[in-house]
Specification:
Blueprint: H1 5-12, H2 19-26, H3 29-34, H4 43-64, H5 70-80, H6 83-92, H7 103-107, H8 114-131, H9 134-144
Helix pairs in contact: 2-8, 4-5, 4-8, 6-8, 8-9
């Protein structure tokens, strides 16, 4: 990591109680597979974060757009919960500087790979939820995602 976890926490506006969750969220499976001892990597947190993000965005849209149909709500959620927007947010947070990547992934510029960035952001969302609670992760998503959602 070219920057410290403390710097990332400042970017995020959230300080982890359990730093292991933060490190796991930033660990790509290629790094974990190359480690001398088994490491957890971010795919499970990504799965959780994706579900939480989808739920929080769905609730936000439901509460703030009372006249939208189910189809419109679904379309708007898909505009927000997608790799492009998530990768853009991850780039603004400079997540690539904090990713732990295997040698091959580093050579392929994996720190700038949009899928890696989006996945890491989802993993961070899962990590914030596990480290704190639903209210905290809702605030986190509001600060970092709502501000960049497409105009409704």
């Amino acid at each position: 990591m070219t920057s410290t976890l403390h710097q990332l926490e400042e970017h995020l506006g959230y300080t982890f109680n359990n730093k292991h969750l933060l490190t796991t969220a930033l660990t790509h499976k290629t790094y974990a597979f190359e480690a001398a001892t088994p490491l957890e990597y971010n795919e499970r947190l990504e799965f959780l974060g994706d579900s939480i993000l989808s739920f929080v965005i769905a609730e936000h849209l439901y509460q703030s757009n009372q006249f939208f149909s189910e189809g419109e709500l679904t379309r708007r959620r898909a505009q927000i919960v997608n790799n492009n927007l998530l990768a853009d947010v991850a780039q603004r947070l400079d997540l690539g500087s904090f990713l732990l990547l295997g040698k091959g992934e580093q050579k392929q510029n994996g720190a700038q790979n949009r899928t890696n960035l989006a996945n890491a952001l989802e993993a961070l969302i899962g990590a914030v939820y596990l480290d704190a609670d639903l209210s905290t992760v809702q605030d986190f998503i509001a600060r970092h995602i709502y501000a960049h959602e497409p105009a409704l």
